Amino acid sequence: MRRKDREITATDEIMQIIEKAKYLHLGLFDDVFPYVVPLHYGYEFKDGKLFFYLHSAEEGHKLDLIRKNPNVCIELECDVEPISGGDIPCKYGAAYWSVIGRGNAEILTDADERIRGLEILMQHQTGRSFQIDEAMTESVEVIRITVPEFTAKARRLQMKSEA
Questions:
Q1: Of 48, 80, 88, 157, which alpha carbon lies 20 to 30 A from 8's?
Q2: Average pLDDT score over residue span 134-149
Q3: Does residue 163 fall inside a structural domain?
Q4: Containing domain of residue 47, as a range?
């Protein structure tokens, strides 16, 4: 990471970003150009790895790309705010908190894993626990992304007296 002064290494702060973010941006390989799609997600953190759960229609471009190459990149951000540079154009920017990671996407086939993935996703998206049954999983695909490598970064807003 080039800007070490903005790096976040504390796990609890990283989890706060992931908890607060609204969408996960999933980057996939699509021949010559990357393909990025915003998605709702659920997550868990175990053994130093992040696990994200996504759902999808049963067919589509995203699934085709995952089947061709399961290597993916994820990005999440929250608290994005513009920073004014006043009369100096080069001083404009944005405050933000973000997490970026590389990992592997897997389309889940085991019924119990699919149920668990959807329950985790719904908990994160709604703040409520839902009982998902196997019949509810039959009209969707459930994707688990295992992310062993990730970094986090923030550019915090400065107080007016600090600016």
A1: 88
A2: 95
A3: no
A4: 4-153
